[in-house]
Amino acid sequence: MGDRFFHSRHPNLETLLRRPPAISGLVPPRLAGIGHNGGPPLDMSGVAVAWRRAHARAWKTPPREIVATRLRRAARLGLDYRDVTLALLDHGCHLSVLLLPLHHVVSVLRDRDGGLRITAAPEFDEKIARLDGRLFLLLDEAMTGPLDPPARRALLRQINQRHDGKAEALLVLPFRPMDTDAQRAQRLRRLLRQHGATRQESVLLGQTWAEIRLAEAAGLGLFKSVAEWFAP
């Protein structure tokens, strides 16, 4: 997933590049020093040449019909050609599920009587209106605080009334301070399975290092910066 993260130009990119090589396996962890991202050597060795040749073959422009199909699939989720191609090369799956963390786009406020109301930026409404794929809203209680089941249902109902039922479900990641990335990832995969979705076809939008780690640990098809997703 390293190539995918690099090209997303995420706000936390420099932090990403300092992380230990946990994915590519090209450089053993014991040999990779601080700042090494596990990619190919930056020289003219045989490994580097093989890497560049393989990269050129993988990104060779396919026939026009295939490009058009990928562009249509990307547009359904507000993505671009490179996004869907990266997921296809990595996992052999087409992206069809969008995981949108609620706290990035919606403010949840409580009325005096205990009811909930939401406020969202206009660009959120415009972007959601153009979506044609499966949309799951991700409620991370570490960011929003705990909500009981009736409050969750009321929240999802308000959002769907505003957006013509675009959101298929509200996936709740409960706040447990001692949880590891692996435990959170396992819960996310289980939630996806419960709704008939796979991790490989799912893309997580986010902007924090914790969200990058979650996408990586869960083996999702793609992580994309929410700021880049909203960009015109």
Features:
single chain, 232 residues, alpha/beta, 5-stranded parallel β-sheet, two-stranded antiparallel sheet, 11 helices, 45% helix, 16% strand, globular, disordered N terminus
Radius of gyration: 19 Å
DSSP helix fraction: 40-55%
- What is the string of helix and strand elements? HHHHHEEEHEHHEHEHEH
Mean pLDDT: 79
Structural class: alpha/beta
What would you note in describing this structure?
This protein has 232 residues and is an alpha/beta fold. Helices cover 45% and strands 16% of the residues. It is built from eleven helices and seven strands. It has helices spanning 2-7, 13-17, 46-58, 64-76, 81-91, 122-130, 141-144, 149-162, 181-194, 209-218, 226-230; strands at 97-101, 106-110, 116-120, 134-140, 167-173, 202-206, 222-225. It has a five-stranded parallel beta sheet with strand order 5-4-1-6-7, sandwiched between helices. Strand 6, helix 10 and strand 7 (222-225) form a beta-alpha-beta unit. Helix 4 (64-76) packs across helix 5 (81-91) and helix 9 packs across helix 10 (209-218). It is globular and about 70 Å long. The model is unreliable at 1-32 (pLDDT under 50).
What is the structure about, briefly put?
This protein has 232 residues and is of the alpha/beta class. The chain has helices at residues 2-7, 13-17, 46-58, 64-76, 81-91, 122-130, 141-144, 149-162, 181-194, 209-218, 226-230; strands at 97-101, 106-110, 116-120, 134-140, 167-173, 202-206, 222-225. The radius of gyration is 19 Å and the shape is globular.
